[in-house]
Amino acid sequence: MKKTLSITLMMSMLFTLLVPFQTIAEKNTSGQLVESAKTAILMEKNSGMTLYEQDAHKKLPPASMTKVMTLLLIMEALDNKNISLEETVRVSEHAASMGGSQIFLEAGEEMTVKDLLKGVAVASGNDASVALAERIAGSEDAFVKKMNEKAQELGLKNTHFKNPTGLPADGHYSTAHDMAVMARELLLHEEITDYTKIYDDYLRKGKKDEFWLVNTNKLIKSYEGMDGLKTGFTKEAKYCLTATAKRGDMHMIAVIMGAETPKKRNADVTSLLNFGFGQYEGVKLYSKDDDLKTMELTRGEPGTLLLQPEKDVVVLKKKGQKTDEYKTRVKVVKQTDLPIREGAHMGWLIVEDPKGNPLTKVKLEASGSVEEADVLTLWERSWRNLTSYWKF
């Protein structure tokens, strides 16, 4: 059931993007959930709530989990139409020289963005990552700068990148918490899971250099609802995994860093996800297509704009607990500049518990575009308002 919205105008945005309001984390004192990993976190994507953490802000090398940020910038470039899935990318000698996990690109080879994306998401290809980084930013260094700028935009204070691959480098680090926030942002691009949940596929199919892709995340095949996201391993980082799984209204994000073996890493991730799905359930308050606010734009065409949440608005509660009467508030960005484009960030929906404690927040977006009205339209509006005012 929808709750009554209390509409509040604000002059400036004071909230940091994607930082969850409430942490209901269980502290690891018994070691029952995570046995091998150095650090861990369990976060629910839709609500932003942290359900469990263990040294989640400890800086460690993320290995190929770095590619969560790489994939995020790739998806943003696709959304912004800076690249397209069907265009071909010519592979540089530098990209082809990458060691570690790779799809064995040759210098001068041409491959579509779609296949390169598949090579990153499924096979963790370092060569594919650098090829796309160069295409998007012009050079690997310029892409890494974008990675660090995005980390700052997301409020990640304990993350710094030196490359888009996760290959060992001094000053290249992140945390379980920061990886979960990156994963949450990436999952807003819902089509990414079309790639990350692929278990196996082929590149250059039917050619003599055909390459079999096999997902480095073996839980894709064995854990119910698993749809991503990215593994990682180096001798320094040990075994890492940012795993995502969706069931019903809940989309869990589990991050494990520094596990001793792949088997122990997968066991820790499974333990975290089982805890989340077993102990909690989602309460959907609004769907992403719900109209939550109408803005009046006196100089716009059209003159009104509907605001909708960027995703379903979900809060969590312990199974068996009574559902609270949640309060919701809308805070709208003061918007004077036109035009406004569809999907523009226009404010926040804030959900609070009955005591007024904030639980989560979801961005509100423009449901359509608004242009600046011409002089004739503005004159007609002024005339209608004037005649309406004097009408008895």
UniProtKB/TrEMBL annotation:
Residues 280-372 form the Peptidase S11 D-Ala-D-Ala carboxypeptidase A C-terminal domain. Removes C-terminal D-alanyl residues from sugar-peptide cell wall precursors. Residues 1-25 form the signal peptide. This is serine-type D-Ala-D-Ala carboxypeptidase. GO terms for molecular function: serine-type D-Ala-D-Ala carboxypeptidase activity. It comes from the Bacteria. Substrate binds at residue 230. The keyword Membrane does not apply. The active site is at 64 (acyl-ester intermediate), 67 (proton acceptor), 124. Belongs to the peptidase S11 family.
